[in-house]
Hints:
With 382 residues, this protein is of the alpha/beta class. Helix 6 crosses helix 7 (175-190). It contains 14 helices and 15 strands. 51% of the residues are buried. Helix 4 links the parallel strand 4 (100-103) and strand 5 (123-126). The longest helix is centred in the N-terminal third of the chain and has 20 residues, at 2-21. The strands form three sheets. A seven-stranded mixed beta sheet has the order 8-7-9-10-11-14-15, with helices on both faces. The radius of gyration is 23 Å and the shape is globular. Mean pLDDT is 92; it is low at 8-21. Keywords: Amino-acid transport, Signal, Transport. It holds the Pfam family Peripla_BP_6. Residues 1-22 form the signal peptide. It comes from Deinococcus peraridilitoris (strain DSM 19664 / LMG 22246 / CIP 109416 / KR-200).
Amino acid sequence: MKGLLRKCMYGLLIASVGAAQAQQVxxxxxSGPLSGGAAFYGQNVQSGIDMAIKEINKxxxxxxxxxxxxxxxxxxxxxxxxxxxxxxxxxxxxxxxxPFVFIPHAGGILTVQGFNQRNPEFLVVAYSSxxxxxxxxxxxxxxxxxxxTMYHEPFVKTTMQAHGKKLGVIPTTSAYGKAWTDxxxxxxxxxxxxxxxxxxxxxxxxxxxxxxVTKTLAEKPDVLFIGGPSQPTALVIKAAREQGFKGGFIVxxxxxxxxxxxxxxxxxxxxxxxxLPLRDFRGPAAQKFVAAYRxxxxxxxxxxxxxxxxxxHALAKAMELAxxxxxxxxxxxxxxxxxxxxxxxxNVYNSTGVDESGHMIAQRIMGQVKGGRIxxxxxxxx
Length: 382
């Protein structure tokens, strides 16, 4: 009897081991700034990915073919340096077999696009609004945010009408910042304005912006174009107001009002245009996400967290539909269907799919600071 019991127990043990082996863990890679001036930005992106992974795993994972699949996030710090992004990505491929790598800056994304379609193939999940990312024609890219060029016409029109036609320029000097500057200043001139000297600085390493602000204000601008990570962007506004600037601001989409108002009062941001805070986006999925994120991470979520959260859920659904965890081309091909099939409460920005270039189609609402309050400027579908 005891021998029979031992055999039964042994059989159950073998069965449980077999069941455990049938569950696959897929590593999701992340290479972004986790130290330096842009660390807060990188951590925000990382937390959106982390939140989605935790939700999926808590629900038991997703079924891909005959296997249950859960996810594990492997994060590496690239200090916002494209060469470090490339090194990190190769490490994520070689050591962690990551089929997807999330990258939150244009320089790193464009560098990695140079080798992600070669063996081994992997999907670049791009959190940057740089148009060159989709213009590259890379077939293994999934781009999350709207293109930054969609902001130019309304931002210029609004600030020029409210404040005047002379633009001062103090953006970050990253590749992304330089591209934003080129296209924004071209739009400013197109609408009949004049542009002062470019006094851009590295927002990731600079701590005192007073010299750049002084040089710019000497040209007596009506509006300042600024932007990079939220915290240094707020410090530029603070320096400008302390030196007596009374005009408006065009704020690059990387900086978020709901983080900037933790550094400077909203009254100092008067006349600024930028991305409307997620907390003011009134869709039911957005409000549910905001509440859940606040409860879990004890801080205010932005579009950075929400779009990357959506990206993970879309990839998980695409793997399920494609029936594979390894064929990244097949997974990429299922992304349009995945966005439509994704649970509505995970679709924070009401995405209607993914276009042929791999760009997620999602609603983005712009905001302005007027009368001491952050209000909606306009709504658009990318």
